[in-house]
Write a structure and sequence with these properties.
- The protein starts with a helix and ends with a helix.
- Helices cover 65% and strands 8% of the residues.
- Strand 1 and strand 2 form a beta hairpin.
- The chain is of the alpha+beta class.
């Protein structure tokens, strides 16, 4: 039985890797062929394929930047790209479960073997793609790969109790509401700053093929922008480079990268935006009122899972973008979750205390 589980997990993990590698390879070859570089060789699109695959998994890169050999770090990667490895992993593990068709313990074993195989392949890709100028972080690669497998397969024929389902659903609902509201605000910001977006696009002059790739890049970075908008709405704000801060009370901004999405940045301070904190506080009361009929454990779990989810989004929505000038980009990985946790906790507290006060 172990040999069968091992074989199925191995083959499906490899399938999950290649189902994503193949379209990336096509895009890389097409871009390389249309670029018309006289210095390139066939190894370039192969390495580019591996780098894009790793970047889609949010694996950071250490860089040596020309011309002076300055060290750089690329860790501010598109959150939207995560959907591709998550879907391929989930599909591969589902196929593995269908082929095993055994008890829960066997599926858990398959999950572990799948994760280890996927991590091993990811580490191999990181090692083979490394050059003197671009080196994927070999320490984080297996850890991130295992984490992605665990997230993608968490509910695929893995049993959880009813309380966990309720708290998880509640946490996902709260995060979805926050994300949806932030998306709406960001969309309005882009709409009212279309001229800036157009100017940033014109500066790049991407051409036809480059324009398509630029559009794809902007779409994949949309979740990053929404996370930054969420941080702006709840108070802490976000950075677009070293020693910069964009928040309702502070607008300290210098030059920005020529990325069309950044055309929607606020142009000054807007203290009234902090009124949106009341909405987050209301979500805390929403959590309490919907879980009051269940055990208090569900309320606590919902709060903790929401905090964990926001923390994960904050980590994904922060990082470095190549140079020292852009060493700090995105939200603070601790200020955003702390702010939302405090605001939701305040809402839960008010939902508990106000009815008791009204009884007197």
């Amino acid at each position: 039985m172990f040999q069968r589980v091992l074989w199925v997990s191995l083959t499906q993990a490899l399938r999950s890797v290649f189902i994503l590698v193949l379209p990336i390879a096509f895009i890389s070859l097409f871009a390389w062929a249309t670029a018309g570089s006289s210095n390139g060789n066939t190894a370039d699109p192969m390495r580019a394929t591996m780098w894009i695959w790793l970047a889609a998994h949010h694996i950071p890169f250490h860089l040596v930047l020309p011309p002076g050999g300055e060290s750089g770090l690329l860790s501010y990667l598109p959150v939207g790209a995560l959907i591709f490895p998550l879907l391929s992993i989930r599909n591969g593990f589902k196929r593995a479960c269908d082929r095993i068709d055994s008890d829960q313990q066997t599926r858990q074993l398959a999950r572990v073997l799948f994760a280890l195989t996927y991590a091993g392949v990811s580490l191999s890709i990181s090692m083979f793609s490394a050059t003197a100028a671009i080196t994927p972080n070999l320490y984080w690669t297996p850890a991130i790969a295992v984490a992605l497998v665990w997230v993608a397969t968490v509910s695929n024929k893995i049993k959880v109790n009813r309380a966990e389902i309720s708290s998880r659903s509640m946490a996902l609902s709260v995060i979805a509401i926050l994300f949806g509201a932030s998306s709406l605000v960001f969309g309005l910001g882009l709409f009212f700053h279309l001229k800036s977006v157009q100017n940033l696009t014109i500066v790049l002059q991407p051409g036809f093929v480059g324009g398509i790739l630029l559009l794809l890049l902007n779409v994949l970075y949309l979740p990053n922008a929404v996370i930054a908008t969420l941080s702006y709405l709840v108070g802490p704000g976000f950075a677009v480079g070293t020693n910069t801060l964009v928040s309702p009370l502070t607008h300290r901004l210098s030059e920005i990268p020529a990325l069309p999405l950044l055309g929607g940045l606020p142009t000054g301070r807007h203290p009234l935006v902090l009124l949106s904190i009341m909405g987050v506080v209301a979500l805390g009361a929403f959590i309490y009122n919907l879980t009051i009929t269940q055990r208090s454990r569900v309320t606590v779990q919902s709060f903790l899972l929401t905090s964990v989810g926001i923390t994960a989004l904050a980590i994904l929505g922060s990082g470095s973008l190549l140079t020292n000038a852009l060493r700090s980009v995105g939200v603070s990985p601790w200020q955003l979750p702390l702010a939302i946790a405090m605001e939701i906790a305040l809402g839960i507290f008010l939902a508990i205390i106000i009815p008791r006060i009204s009884e007197f």
